[in-house]
Amino acid sequence: MRVVIQRVSSASVSVNKKVIGNCGNGLLILAGIETADTEEDAAWLSTKIINLRIFNDTEGKMNLSLKEVNGEMLVVSQFTLHAATKKGNRPSYIQAARPEQALPLFNKFIAMLEKESGRKVATGEFGAHMEVSLMNDGPVTIIIDTKNKE
Fold this sequence. Notes:
It contains 2 helices and 8 strands; from the N terminus they run E-E-E-H-E-E-E-H-E-E.
């Protein structure tokens, strides 16, 4: 699994001009699932995200986790995170999981985030054309790939 995490003061996702998910202070998570991903990847990633210390403490240092600041989350599926651009100018999405594999794992990932955080997680609509709006806070943007745990 590959995610782009953005610390936000607010974020929302719309389908057909209607907001279907939003969050306040917390994280916007763009999540891509590839064919080799498993529930173990989702479990590792959800724990990592909830405990990532990227929120400011009283001294302005990034020392606090999402859980410690009682932050919210908006998770949006994004298969294009697995674009291969090595050859030519048209990205290939061959590594991205097909919906029948990706959707169940995406839903498990959401459930794991909710369990770890103790909060409801807002989402977009899997497979839909979505418009995402955000107010990036920092800006703080982090990329995590479960196949390259750095």
